[in-house]
Amino acid sequence: MKSVVPTLLAILPLALAQGGHNGGHHNGGWNGGGWYSEGWNKGGGSNGGGSNGVGSNGRNQGSGGNSQSCTSLTADEIRTSGNNSLFTRWRPYSHVNAPAGWLNDPCAPMYDPTRDEYHIFYQWHPQHINWGNISWGHATSKDMISWTDHGGWQDHEALALGPSGNGSYNGLGIFSGTGQPVNIHGQKDGTLLLFYTSVSWLPIGWSIPYHPGSETQSLAYSTDGGNTWQEYAGNPVISATTETAPMYWNITGFRDPFFEPSPHLDALLGQSEPHYYAVFGSGIEGVGPRIPLWSAPASDLTDWTFLGALWEPQANTSFGPLLSTGTYAFNFEVSGFFSLTDSKGDVHYYANMGTEGGNVSFHESNHWALWNEGVVSRGANGSAQFHPVAGGAGDWGNGYAITSFNDTKNNRRLQWVWAPEDLVGDGGLFSAKQQGFQGSLTIPRELFVHEADGLLNPNGTLENGNSVVTQHSDGTYSASTLGVMPARDVADGLRLGARYTKISKTTYTSNKILQQQAAASYEIRAVVLATTGPVGLVIGASSDGVEYTNIIYEPSNNTILVERLHSSTIVEFANVTVTGFFAPYTLAETGKAEAITMDVFVDGSLVEVFVNERFALSTRIYPSKLCSTGFGVYVGAGSSATFSNFEAWVGLANVWPERPANSSSPLVWDTAAATNNYTWWSGN
């Protein structure tokens, strides 16, 4: 995937930004005694990630105490600091990320049954803080909790694949792709096979003329567990391009192969032998985004045949209401196609896609990670055709470039998401060279068919496009949608060594800080039984009341808001409110809304929000104060809310035990000659 720093849209529609409150953000703030706090587990330490070897640039991994400074770091101090001087300040240590440098899309997650090992790759520009010369970094794990840089953590040591130089089929980039633990004949003999987009021409973008042959599709393989990689001698295995056979499309892009076997599609299409199926991100100029579908016999994964467009949405349209289902925009990238089985044994088909070019005022980027469920049938041309029946956002924040894989060890589907930074000052690069890196991956997420029975449909609230809804003869409804939650075993592993606290059922009538100083990483899980108005959590709160971030469920329009107006005193970091859609189900048994369970992970600047196992949101906060680690509950002005449970784990595990806390690398600026006079990439 070719990626750039997202364009930020600072204007939120008034109805969404206010949500019935004042000034575009919610009342009940720190002024006038709106907040109060209680001492809770102060003092005490923890073995949180990154606690060792952290230098003077600051990182708080203890679980409380009074040692955290409330002096604000300023933008001027950041700008005058040296490269890598703030490497640990906001860095996540409980997530998968590159040792240093620029990171974007997750690639080729897979489980290797021969060696009982998980692999994750990522788009990487080592020793740079911006996109360019895009390569693949590589990490491995036995349990997806503790990770090892494959090859080492210094400089380029974790590199798996890199461009071979201008003039060759992959000379200017190893764009995104996926992998399988098979050889090119589909056999599991310990070989690892990667399918990626090879790039020979830049720049590439959906809104500029497409140069024929820019993107082709290629294979690489390893027979030693990923220690070394070989390019397939017959690369590229797919050379289709704009206005040529077999697609004959005036394409806006053609990249990011996602390939898997599918016995269900084999049966639907009447295949005489098992096949693998690949989908790509693409689009047709002036028509709309596309997901081309290709297949190859499992016995020869170099022999790919174009079957047709899996799905043909029109440009800049939406499956349902824009707020709840998002926009398809003008081009797809990082597409995926997979099936899940529900509790009754029925198969559900899902497509995910990164949409490009959408200009939606309540979504801060013109990129958006969406999903659709669909009915798959055999079309007149003999290919599979996808007909959407539900949809939503795979990540309601700035999480993007979603990919997933079949974890055959645990019989589940896991998803990885790119969580970019959110820097707006200095052309989107404020603090980037001082931090020495950009980007992280989210916690692995488990996908499943989320099923709910015994529901009511007051005022058509179920008809928002997120679920497949069935009405029963007794007047109740069932709903199914794409479920998402942190992988349970990974979440459990992150909590090991953390300080745990639990508060039992309590009713709050105003905001309350429950721990004034925590750590740079923690998890909060809270269950709201009932509320009369906006309700949620507070994170990143400074003990002097200056900085705080509110995570709010707003019942007036069924939105989840991450309100960042006071997240940092440094305005060069993004402070727009992040908006996601979440509509609680109404239960027939009680006639009331279901309880709301919020599960929030904070790790350095990275924040992940999960709600009721069917909502996920990633975003960033960059507090200027080291003491901005407090957390508590949020209750809108004049409202009351009953929390049946509030749990916290302070000081999450460091998932990189073999890396030093400061794994930074010297930053390099590419020459004009190396970047075609900075037309291929910016060079930094």
Automatic annotation (TrEMBL):
<comment type="similarity">
    <text>Belongs to the glycosyl hydrolase 32 family.</text>
</comment>
<protein>
    <recommendedName>
        <fullName>Glycoside hydrolase family 32 protein</fullName>
    </recommendedName>
</protein>
<dbReference type="GO" id="GO:0004575">
    <property type="term" value="F:sucrose alpha-glucosidase activity"/>
</dbReference>
<dbReference type="Pfam" id="PF00251">
    <property type="entry name" value="Glyco_hydro_32N"/>
</dbReference>
<feature type="domain" description="Glycosyl hydrolase family 32 N-terminal">
    <location>
        <begin position="95"/>
        <end position="451"/>
    </location>
</feature>
<dbReference type="InterPro" id="IPR013189">
    <property type="entry name" value="Glyco_hydro_32_C"/>
</dbReference>
<keyword id="KW-0732">Signal</keyword>
<feature type="signal peptide">
    <location>
        <begin position="1"/>
        <end position="17"/>
    </location>
</feature>
<keyword id="KW-0326">Glycosidase</keyword>
<dbReference type="GO" id="GO:0005987">
    <property type="term" value="P:sucrose catabolic process"/>
</dbReference>
<feature type="compositionally biased region" description="Gly residues">
    <location>
        <begin position="44"/>
        <end position="65"/>
    </location>
</feature>
<dbReference type="GO" id="GO:0005737">
    <property type="term" value="C:cytoplasm"/>
</dbReference>
<dbReference type="InterPro" id="IPR013148">
    <property type="entry name" value="Glyco_hydro_32_N"/>
</dbReference>
<keyword id="KW-0378">Hydrolase</keyword>
<dbReference type="Pfam" id="PF08244">
    <property type="entry name" value="Glyco_hydro_32C"/>
</dbReference>
<dbReference type="InterPro" id="IPR001362">
    <property type="entry name" value="Glyco_hydro_32"/>
</dbReference>
<feature type="region of interest" description="Disordered">
    <location>
        <begin position="44"/>
        <end position="71"/>
    </location>
</feature>
<feature type="domain" description="Glycosyl hydrolase family 32 C-terminal">
    <location>
        <begin position="508"/>
        <end position="649"/>
    </location>
</feature>
<dbReference type="InterPro" id="IPR023296">
    <property type="entry name" value="Glyco_hydro_beta-prop_sf"/>
</dbReference>
<dbReference type="InterPro" id="IPR013320">
    <property type="entry name" value="ConA-like_dom_sf"/>
</dbReference>
